[in-house]
Design a protein that fits this description.
By secondary structure, this protein is an alpha+beta fold. The chain folds into 2 domains: about 130 residues, Electron Transport, Fmn-binding Protein, Chain A (Pnp Oxidase, Chain A), CATH 2.30.110.10; about 35 residues, no CATH class. About 25% of the residues lie in helices and about 25% in strands. The chain has a 7-stranded antiparallel beta sheet with strand order 2-1-5-6-7-4-3, covered by helices on one side. A hairpin with a 6-residue loop joins strand 5 and strand 6. It starts with 7 loop residues before the first helix and ends in an 11-residue tail after the last helix. InterPro entries: Pyridox_Oxase_FMN-dep, Pyridox_Oxase_N, Split_barrel_FMN-bd.
């Protein structure tokens, strides 16, 4: 039998009360250490929700420091070429609330930022976001409402950064996955060529 949790009180009774440090650790402005973390992070997860409540989480990555600090309460993330679905960007236009998790390879703690986002198609600071000669076509500007560090337990449990636990061959290649799941009409040979060794040269075009 499935037993659901249906109230805040029930949830709190089950999980218990957070420590004072955990409950009060969130801030609204960047500390210098937050700036240092953003400067060292090459990857983040971006969570958004549409007007109807439907959610999206999108990975964003670039050279370390790609999240540009504009001031103590504002950061910006550049857009890079992708699949053009723009799920998260469409969500932002309807609902500006956003959640970010910044990772540093090898670190098991993470930096979380929640706030309100808007899309900007140009600004003088776009010049600071040029990578390999490519200027972003837009950026997500995030007004910080909450920022805090998240403990290491999830990444420790998952052994995320321990190479001896990695199993990249547990599933078929990217080309084979697409052939089986998304594009059965395209030939496997064409897909393997597209996602082959030359694919890395296309990530900014």
């Amino acid at each position: 039998m499935t037993v659901e949790i249906t109230s805040h009180e029930e949830l709190r009774e089950l999980l218990g009360v957070p420590s004072a440090r955990a409950a009060n650790k969130d801030r609204t402005r960047l500390h210098q250490r937050d700036r240092d973390w953003l400067g060292a992070s090459p990857f983040c997860l971006v969570a958004t929700a549409g007007a109807d409540g439907s959610c999206d989480v999108s990975p964003k990555g670039d050279p370390a420091g790609f999240a540009l600090v504009l001031d103590d309460t504002t950061i910006a993330l550049p857009e890079r070429p992708g699949n053009r679905r723009a799920d998260g960007y469409r969500n932002i236009l309807d609902n500006p609330h956003i959640g970010l998790v910044f990772l540093i390879p090898g670190r098991t703690d993470t930096l979380r930022i929640n706030g309100r986002a808007r899309l900007v198609r140009d600004a003088p600071w776009f010049d600071e976001m040029v990578v390999k000669g490519h200027r972003p076509v837009l950026a997500v500007v995030v007004e910080i409402e909450q920022i805090f560090y998240h403990c290491a337990k999830a990444l420790l449990r998952s052994a995320l950064w321990q190479p001896e636990t990695w199993q990249p061959e547990a599933l078929p290649s990217r080309a084979r996955l697409i052939k089986e799941v998304e594009a059965p009409v395209e030939s496997l040979e064409d897909l393997e060529q597209h996602y082959g060794p030359e694919y890395v040269t296309k990530i900014y075009t």
